[in-house]
Amino acid sequence: MVSEREKTLVAALDLGTTSSRCILFDRAGQPRGIGRRDHRQIMPEPGLVEHDPIEIVNNIWPMVADALAEAGARVSDLAAIGITNQRETAVVWDRTTGQPIHNAIVWQDTRTAAICDALTRAGHAEMIKERTGLPVATYFSGPKVEWLLDNVPGARDRAESGKLMFGTIDTWCIWNLTGGIHGGLHLTDVTNASRTMLFDLKRLDWDPELLELMRIPASILPETRSSSEIYGSATGPLQGVPIAGVLGDQQAALFGHAGFEPGAVKNTYGTGCFALLNTGTRAVTSTHGLITTVAYQLPGRPATYCLEGSVAVAGALVQWLRDNLGLIATSAEVETLARTVPDNGGVYFVPAFSGLFAPHWRSDARGLIAGLTAFANKGHLARAALEATAWQTREVLEAMCADSGTALNELRVDGGMVQNDLLMQIQADVLGVPVVRPRVAETTALGAAYAAGLAVGFWRSMDDLLSQWAEDKRWKPAIDSAVRADEYEHWKQAVERTLGWTQPTAVQRA
Fold first, then answer.
1. How far is CA 509 from CA 123, 150, 478, 481, in A?
2. Is the dihedral angle over the CA atoms 24, 28, 29, 32 positive or is it negative?
3. Edge-to-edge strand order for the sheet containing 304-311?
């Protein structure tokens, strides 16, 4: 039996939108082993995005095994497991059989547009935002659960008789890792709960009125816990390893940046793009189209809150260029292709594939390529795709500065796209402030590891974590402010032309 002091690694399970990864971190916060598995993107119709929950949970042990092999480690070397996850994706399953009643409905999915429209038309939007910090939008889990209970035959009756369970991806995987139908733990943390549109931000508990509004039985909901505590132990191949940290992916990235003080801001570039600003123990209500959400909570302490701006499509646009158009063979090639031209050639790409998120919140928007002439080529399309991520980020950060009354001095970045040096330079040019990449770019997984490691004493304090953050590279603005302003005006014109392309289908609500 290996003693606690001999344990040398913390495992982070990063359960993302297009793939899952296990990354093992040592006491210096350095990655020592990585395992990865992709999962299918199931798109039955335009606007519908699903995942197979069983595929996701079945991928966990193989990728952990790969990470252990790369690190030359064993399960007995693991002090704890931390989990971070795509947040709003909803799973409903049978508590007796453990089988999902339907594929998971992914955060990008827009099938609940009619439900959300009905809530707004009925006058509930202001109350929902006041309670939850969230706008009424297809993004969030609550309407997805309502849709599942109404559209899967027999689901509502089964839910009301206590036979079903709901959870986001963290909840689904924790339940399976801790035994499933044989005593699995049904829980989530406050960061994931705060993304459901069912959770009272101030009371840090499920809201009975919102549950009644969306006709969701309280019995299907998980227990809510802090973000860093020992929830229980894993079974199966990971037998006995404590599961001790849970954070939604964007909150985990802020935690991994050691963004513990009010005013800390980060932006993550993944499938989507997400900026978070720490507002301390005060939940700041946004008047500029942002989300108010829980950043994290440590045991026995008040919750820390943040403002968030969410962009639906960032890295997903590069994947679209690769998979749907065949312009590139690998995602990394987008930078090479974009460097074949000196600018965008007048082309602007607004990737509103699932509507527009912050600060617009328009589910009726659809994607648009504007400014095309016979001069434009595939290099201009690639550059416009990178610029789309940068411009959307600027919109979000401008709203963030307006809500918080603070100016942006620099932007700390993380996520898969930060390895694209051209994108990072474009981002600095678009914002007019430096962009800074940390030495450990796997910030989301690191945040989950930090939360779990703190809970078991692998790291002693948050000061330990602060001391580990280090800068890798910095990009400074390199364009004239007049050029920046002119380009931004063209971007905003393109955004305006995406609006009003679809209308929500009418829905009858009981």
1. 14, 10, 53, 51
2. negative
3. 291-296, 304-311, 273-280, 265-269, 411-414, 435-438, 471-475
Measure CA 203 to chain center. 23
Residue indicated by tokens 């193989």: 62
β-sheet bridge partners, residue 94: 164
Burial of residue 219 (CB within 10 Å: 0-12, 13-18, 19+) is middle
Give the span between the Cα atoms of 389 and 350, in whole angstroms. Answer: 9
Report how far apart the first and last C-alpha atoms of the chain are (Å, whole number). 58
pLDDT tens column, 222-270? 999 999 999 999 999 999 999 999 999 999 999 999 999 998 889 999 8
Bridge partners (DSSP) of residue 414 are: 268
Helices 378-404 and 315-323 cross at an angle (nearest 10°) of 160
Q: Whole-prediction pTM value? A: 0.86
Whether the CA torsion 176, 182, 185, 186 is positive or negative: it is positive
CB 35 within 8 A of CB 26: no
> Which residues of the chain fall below pLDDT 50?
1-4, 505-510
Give the integer Cα–Cα distance in Å for 289 and 310: 10
User: Do 381 and 327 meet the contact criterion of CB atoms below 8 Å apart?
Assistant: yes
Q: Which helix (H) or strand (E) holds 141?
A: helix 141-151
